[in-house]
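Subject: sequence -> structure tokens, single chain

Hey, anyone have a minute? Need the predicted structure for the following. Not urgent.
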Amino acid sequence: MSESPRKSHNPWLSVAIVCLAQLMVVLDATVVNVALPSIQHGLKMSQANLQWVVNAYTLTFGGFLLLGGRLSDLFGRRRLFFIGVSLFSVASLIDGLSSSSGMLVGARALQGIGAALVSPATLAIVNTTFPDGDDQRKALSLWAALSAGGAAAGLLLGGVLTQALSWPWIFFVNVPIGVAAVALAVRFVPGGRIETHERGADILGAAAITGGLALLIYAIVGTQTYGWGSPRTLTLGVVALVLIAAFVGIEARVRAPLVRLAIFRTRALAVGDGAMFFLGAGLFANFYFGTLYLQEILHFSPIATGFAFLPVAVLIGAAAGISQRLVPLYGVRAVAVAGMALAAGGLALMVRVSVHGTYLGTLLPAFVLLAVGLGLSFVPATLIGVSSVHGDDAGLASGLFNTAQQVGGALGLAVLATLAASRTSSLISALGHHVTKHAAAGATVSGYRIAFLVAAGFMLTSILVIVSFLRARHLEHVALDGEPVATGAGA
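Reply:
Had a minute. Here:
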């Protein structure tokens, strides 16, 4: 039995409510970054344990996204939205009340599970609220802008709350937002599950893919401590790949699969997910290494670091608004490629960082280029990845798209952090025993440069995926007022 929809509702109010919850989830992926030194001091955490304040969230968020996406199709997107937001809010409250590192890390993992239920449900609701056309494109553009700009806004919010109040408030702030989102959704968001005769739970498939993805991300984030070639990393990686391979075999045989493998025959979905994987891999570098550079090298305070990223959040939102107007004129493919090229240029410009760099002269020009590029690229990438699928598979498509971004971000950040640390260590080792503070800072910045350069390469790879595998015939699902949009020159 499907959820009973409201007799009348304002679709834009529904979109605004679920986007509020999505913004809360996205903010939380970065809001802790600026507060990490305060959390470490307040809970007396070791450096090794501190990384799990971030990684515990990433681990469960990425690992449970596919399950969350499919559950929203089977049991109702609105219902999963309620459960996810409630779980996220309760976990946020526990985060703020944490008196030990174990309590905080455990609550962060619980937050990630809540986020994995919320994010695909919100995107599926946004995607199915409007029929193909101008309104759907605008709604998906809003979701994409919040997803991209929210990460930068999280750094600002984290800095302000940490310095003005204290680090627990970066979590407490989620509670009233979550309560408001649930209360408003009860009244204004209609039900959304489509009836289907295939209601099997596919418990075995869910366990295989959730365990495989979670274990893969766990192995990836552990490379910063153990290295890529360690027996631990290799063993975990092999087990994760075996579980993922087992999942593919299970899905090909069960009657009601968690992931209908035929969905990947939709070229736009497959290409959109592939491009988002590499875009996410490059995106996280700016926020992570940019924050470290500002605080460790330029000695910015938490609140100053947060405000340093304010132009990024503003420009992403502005560029996303421009992007949704450019798509009908030039097509999703052309706008996506242009945006990703600008973003790659911004990351490449970050290679100019130095010990004597400045915010205005060194970082801001790169931030501007990167932010505009992200705002332009996230909207068409989202349209490509999710708007080709509706009905029973809308939640699944949303889960796949979010999984591509989260796993890409986790993998990319692990690769970049390892490369940066390796570069820094080799330079310090070459200096011998007498390493001055200035020389150590120089070695650290050299590691950042390597990370930014490789991140730019990830962005360029996302362009390669779109140009190589996406053609005009694959884009007929992107429509404006019922008419296919232009696909751009060379499509």
